[in-house]
Design a protein that fits this description.
- The chain is α+β, with helices and mostly antiparallel strands.
- The protein has a domain of about 110 residues.
- It is built from one helix and nine strands.
- Strand 1 and strand 2 form a beta hairpin.
- The relative contact order is 0.15.
Length: about 160
């Protein structure tokens, strides 16, 4: 009695079906994981954009307020500061709704907290424009229900007579 052994070529139908099912399972799991991570990264990106806007605006305010002419301060409220800088340009920073503006041009969106506090040469809080020597600026931004840290800086006005 002789047994003939045939050489097998290709795959059986059962093997192909198993591979297709496994690829489907791996694809479904991958798609689920991707759908969970992409929205999270978009929220982080939005928060990063808001935080960047706040830091950039604060740096600009710091640079310009430092060069303010102390005798030219026109508005000094909690949400508005107006002055003339060393080059003679009139500059106003104003919070309107949830936007921070510089001379009517938006600097930061989604502002949920903003304050300007004014101090004299001795470090005492003052409301008298002619006595202002330091300005404390604070900004809080919220986007997609995520609040950035408080961005806070103290600015000394250089051009004091």
């Amino acid at each position: 009695m002789t047994l003939s052994i045939r050489k097998q070529l290709g795959f059986t139908l059962v093997e192909l079906v198993i591979v297709i099912v496994l690829i489907g399972i791996v694809g479904t799991i991958s798609a689920f994981m991707m759908s969970q991570t992409v929205p999270g990264s978009l929220v982080a990106s939005d928060q990063g954009e808001s935080a960047w806007q706040a830091r950039t605006a604060l740096a600009r305010m710091e640079r310009e307020i430092r060069e303010a002419n102390p005798n030219s301060i026109a508005a000094n409220t909690v949400t508005q500061f107006g002055f003339v800088d060393a080059t003679g340009s009139v500059i106003y920073y104003t919070l309107v709704g949830n936007q921070l503006f510089r001379n009517f041009q938006p600097l930061v969106d989604n502002v949920t907290g903003f304050a300007l506090l004014y101090y004299d040469a001795t470090g005492t809080q003052t409301a008298v424009a002619a006595n202002i020597r330091y300005v404390l600026v604070g900004i809080i931004v919220t986007e997609n229900d995520i609040t950035t840290p408080v961005y806070l800086t103290s600015i000394a006005i250089r051009n004091v007579d």
